Fold each of these.
Amino acid sequence: MTSPERERTFKEQARKILDYLKSDIRYDRNFMPRPFFMELTGSPSAGKTTCIKELDKFFRRQGFRVLCPQEGAEVIRHISRATPLYNIRTGMYAAEMLVDISMGTLYDIVIFDRCLFDAYCWMEYWDEKGKLDADEKQTIQSFFLSRFFTDKLDAVYFMTADPMVAMERELKIALSKEPGETTNPKTVATLVTRFKKVYEVLSPQYPQLHLIDTTDLGEQEMVEYIAKHVLDSLEKKIQKSGS
């Protein structure tokens, strides 16, 4: 067998195998959709961690395959938090996971503890601190709002709470009543204002954004509110794909 004949034989054999593997079950996004992605972010002690924990538990017990990626702040520890680079890096960490996981169907639901829009909000913080100029801020925020990322996030929840209520929650079972760097009434108030401002600016363009004031909500109410919204969104997605 000549070299060209061997090459042709190899290609034909490879094509037959690929035709078998490239079934609708494995490759057709309409047949097997990507995971449903959500991001929870917001001001301290607004209920984000509680909601993530309970949503994860509920959906897993219903038979869904759920992933809660480790928060960027728990992974990126080699960069000082005193620089914008820290929040750029944690945002890139989340964006990388978002893109990579969206290429497969291993999970049904993925719940991010802070993702793209959290990184966007932090650039507002660093701008206020004078550590970013206008062009830098716009460039970084535009990167995180790229449609290649945001089109994959199905639901984003900005959770906020009144600063004094947030402090009561924060210190309820704390060993020390001393306020932290970001968990003090003044800083919490600033963060609440920032998230609300970002929501007002971005929500007209990004309908997946939702602002939830948890000040007067108990833990059960918070979780039920988001769970209902996620279930409704998933149901609509199924109906849309089936039409």
Amino acid sequence: MKMLSLETELKGNSYPGRGIVIGKSADGKYAVTAYFIMGRSENSRNRVFVEDGEGIRTQAFDPSKLSDPSLIIYAPVRVLGNKTIVTNGDQTDTIYELMDKQQTFEQALRTREFEPDAPNYTPRISGIMHVENGNYNYAMSILKSNNGNPEACNRYTFAYENPVAGEGHFIHTYMEDGNPLPSFEGEPKLVGIDGDIDSFTEKVWNSLNEDNKVSLFVRYIEIETGKYETRIVNKNK
């Protein structure tokens, strides 16, 4: 698979929707993840990321303008022991709760499907990072309608063992802007991961469409120790 530039992928797509990047830093020391949200409607754009324990949650920037919280207010990131869960919806809680009961990432997601937001039927994208005793692996998932047909749910899981330094994978909800919005297709894109947490955060944020970007979360987890650093960027301030 050809390695793509994350910067180019983002700059070339005005509306990838919500996106998850997971990989390993170029120096091999860090497990890396980024999660961003974008919005076209006032309701979607009226959000910020805030820290919540070891994870984050979305909240309304201006509560008086919040019209429907059902699909936009959730915890995108939660930490369960040595596992970091990153998703684009409340399936974060499903994964956390069922993995806490010894079910697998894939088993937990079997209980969920794409979002009920006709006619888009937005895919649910999820990732999980496992960092323990100097070892690191991750998996990503997408649950999507069958080419816009809500009668069928297509489920894909991709697992990456012993990730290579400087490499990551990028999955997002929409192929491009449109009406209805076309769901992501294919396996997660192979992208390069470079720079420290601040330069990586800056590169991703500056590559997102200025009109549509809302918030960005980035975390670097030290593979040897499990210690992490986090960056949050919100357009609304």
Amino acid sequence: MDAVVVTHVHPDHFEEKTAALMDHALPVCAQNETDAATIASWGFTDVRVLPDAGSPFGSLALTRVPAQHGLTPATDCSPASGVVLTAADEPTLNLAGDTVWYPEVARTLERFRPEVTVLNCCGATLASRGRIIMDEEDVLAVCQAAPWTRVVASHMEAVNHGNVSRAYLRTFVDRLGVGERVLIPADGEVLEF
């Protein structure tokens, strides 16, 4: 592992118990100053904040992009963010992060035109807030808005409040004719682009 990119500090992304198991000399890129301070308090010595305009990290540039971690700003579990990774002679990668489909996701897709987009899309729902990340309809919206991108379905069957399974998503995207663009990896599967 060369570095860690943290879209937000939530237990299913990055938290203190996991951090305790890691090499604290690893560079960690955090979405904002608040998360950076939390991560530094866990003992990491090289914590960087991702700017909106892109950050060089060796030959890789990382740009923090907006995310809405809930269906409305009032039910949003944010702050959360996405990250776009670009490098010469490599496909652009958009990690949408914990977000629902909303206009800023469309703007990110149009601005960066990523060849690969990773979506957290199990339709996770909280009783107090409603749906907090993408579901199958949001995956379809991404496919329709950005026909140039391959979608990787993430967060599948990983949290107990998820409502969309791998099998259901596969059936849904195949039935609607975008299945060839949606990859739904098994646990531990490695994808190369």
Amino acid sequence: MSTNSKLFDSIGIKPRGAKKAEEEARAAAECNWEGCEKPGTHKAPKGRNYEGEYVNFCMEHVREYNKNYNYFSGLGDKEIRDFQKESMTGHRPTWKTASNRAQEEIDPEKLRANPTWFNKVRDRAGTRATGSGTRQLKKLELTALKTLGLDDKATKEDINKKYKALVKLNHPDANQGDRSTEDRLRQIIQAYKQLKQAGLC
């Protein structure tokens, strides 16, 4: 690369000797500790609301200063908690996202008192309860329920009960070895597997 290139000129490098000049300036500065006349060769942060500003101390006093330094001094517990919470988003504003109304309405106390209460909330939202919350049923799941002769409001117990009854009814052993219901039995087993995989039974 040519040293006459525009790219080369845009590289930000401190001029030669700038670092040395900075160190010499710090060495020339006195220690900011009251009553100390040693050179302030070490920088320490000023504190909250003075970000990017420093004070100079000698080695002995910078250690003492750092030992007692507390960024949150003068703040109450609530202010510290608020600061920590805001620091999670880099102190930028945040907004709540839209939420599923049905999930907000689920009250554990009501559910313990009346287990069927949850079904009413679920039906109102047009969703299905699963281990991970509520969601819309997929076409394959609806088809599998239809194969078992159930609707989308069927519970885990309904699915298991219906599956057992259909297997007993369509099994060749229950029909004196008649194999004409084998295809129907395969469909029932496949539908049950689909529902089980979806976490509905």
